[in-house]
Every structure is written in structure tokens, then in C-alpha cells.
Amino acid sequence: MYLILAAAIALIWANSPFAEAYQALISIEAIKGVAIFTFFLSLGIELRHEITKGSLSKPRQAIVPIFAAIGGMLVPVGIYSLINQGLPTAAGWGVPMSTDVAFALAVLAIAGRFLPAPIRVFLLTVAVVDDSLTILMIALFFSSTFHALSVVSLAGVAIGLLLPRGQKLTGWLTPTVNYVALPVFALVSAGVNIQGLGASIVGSAITWGVIVAMVLGKPLGVLGTTWLVTKSGLGKLAAGIKWPDLLSIGSLFGMCFTVALLMTELSFGPKPTEHSIANISVFIGSLTSAALAVVALQIRKRAHV
Q: Residue 240: what pLDDT?
């Protein structure tokens, strides 16, 4: 929960009498760069491991989380684009696209410890795949803008994929990412001045596009695609995964935080108002998804007791 704590500190700081100090901090682009590079380096290493030795190494079993990740990206993008159709804010289509793997796994570890291990593997795999596909989207649609963060994120995942013994680094890299890099990135990215934004937030197509896409679109995309793939016989779920357990974690996929904050900057960085509204929407959407996931997991827990 360090991510949420860091984001809350950022919001309070950015709206306090010490806001100038916060603005001075976030003007140091290297802080964001190092934090996001470290995160995507760990993502690249994890993806390499999944492809060579993990759940992505078995084609028929790998096809389910791969398609689930694709569906979990396309549905939110479609929802956001529909709500923002014909508006300049349509540029934010990538914001609700990618599940925050660290955030989702943290909630699962707290509220879903009773679930079988394959559920965690499924969640991890879908999140890693959709984060990786998001990197591809950044390469295709945002690298031409030469935004430093898009270049850094691409470099991080590429190096992680190419490291032959990268998995040996996870012993220190994983806690560094979870307890330092991601909270620091949240601290320097989530702080927005909300003064005077009240009516703008409520009436903005960005707000409704991001929140509806995250809270409803992500679970619908992931679980709906999983159902289609398994029912068609194209792929199968790993042994030990039951549909009631899978349904109970649906809202975890709507927790799009770290990469979503990166996408708000890539999409709306030069537009302070839109950028602020998008960041607040990500915050609301992630917390709502987390709360719904905890409720669903508590309900499901009764069946395991």
C-alpha cells in the first residue's frame, strides 16, 4: 500500500502551503526516469522468465492469459474512446489500459491469501503481458514525441528481456521496485493541484472515461475474453483455477495505477488541467477497483472457510 500512501502524500503536498517545494521536486525529470526504468527493467526480467520457464512457456496454457490481457486492454480502450469520441481528450485512450501488477498482487496477498496459487500466477501473467503490450503501444504511438519517459520505459523492458541471468537480480530488485521505485514514481507523478477543479472533474469526459474503463472495462475484458477462449477450446485454464475464484479477482485487473500515471503524462503532459483530471481519475478508479476486489474476495472467502 506504499503506492497509495505516496500518492496521498503527493496530493496533500501539492495542495499545501509547501506546493512550491513539490513543484521543484517534480521538475527533476531524472527522478521519474530512474524510477520508471527500474520498474520496467523488473517487468522485462519477469516477462523473460514467464516466456522461458513460466506460464507462457506452454503454448496452449499461455494462450489464455495472453488473450485475456489483450481483451483487458481493448475493452477499456473502447469504452474510453466511446465516451471521449470526437473530443480532444480522446488522446487519453491509453490511460486505463494496463493493470498495476504490484498494486494488484499486494491486494491479493492481503485479501486473497486463501485462494489457490494458480490464481496468483494467472493474475501475474495477465498483468505482465498487458504491461508489456502497453510498452508496445508506447513504442508505436508515443515514441515519436521523444518523451523521455517513453524512451526510458522502452529501454528498461528491452534490457530486462535481454539479460540472460536477470532472474538472479530479483532478490534485491523486487523489493527495490515495490518499496522505493514505485512509491517514488507515485510521489512525483500523482500530486496535482485540485483547487478549482471540482466542477471540471465531475463534468469531464476524461473522468468518466477513465473510471468506467478501469472499474468495469478491465474486469469485463479480461474475464470475458478468458471465457471465450476457454469455451472455444482454443486454450485452457491452468489446473487448480476455478471460475468462482477467478471471478472474485476480476476487479483487481481494474487497478491501473503506475503505468496509468505514465500514460497520463504521455497523453496530457503539456495540458495541466487535463493531466490533473486524468491523474485524479486514475486514483479514484484504482481505489474503487481495490475496494470492490476486497469485497468480492471476502464474499468468496466464505466458500473456502
A: 84
| Model confidence pLDDT, tens digit, residues 28-82 | 888 989 998 998 898 888 888 888 887 788 777 789 999 999 999 999 999 999 9
* Rounded CA separation 256/37 (Å): 18
What is the rounded distance in angstroms from the CA atom of residue 149 to the CA atom of residue 159? 15
pLDDT at residue 106, rounded to an integer: 86
Grid cell for residue 139: 513504442
User: Nearest to residue 130, comparing CAs of 235, 58, 188, 50?
Assistant: 50
180: enclosing H helix or E strand = none
| Residue that is written with C-alpha cell 471521449 in the block | 84
Task: Name the architecture of domain 2-304.
Answer: Up-down Bundle (1.20)
The contacts of residue 159 (CB under 8 Å, 6+ apart) are 41, 44
Show the cell assigned to 295.
469485497
Spell out the domain ranges in the chain: 2-304
Band (pLDDT 50/70/90 cuts) for residue 146 is low
The answer to whether 218 and 96 have CB atoms below 8 angstroms apart is: yes
Q: At 13, list the grid cell.
A: 503536498
Per-residue pLDDT tens over the stretch 213-226: 999 999 999 999 99
Cell 503501444 belongs to 137
CA-angle at 230, arms to 227 and 236, nearest 5° = 135
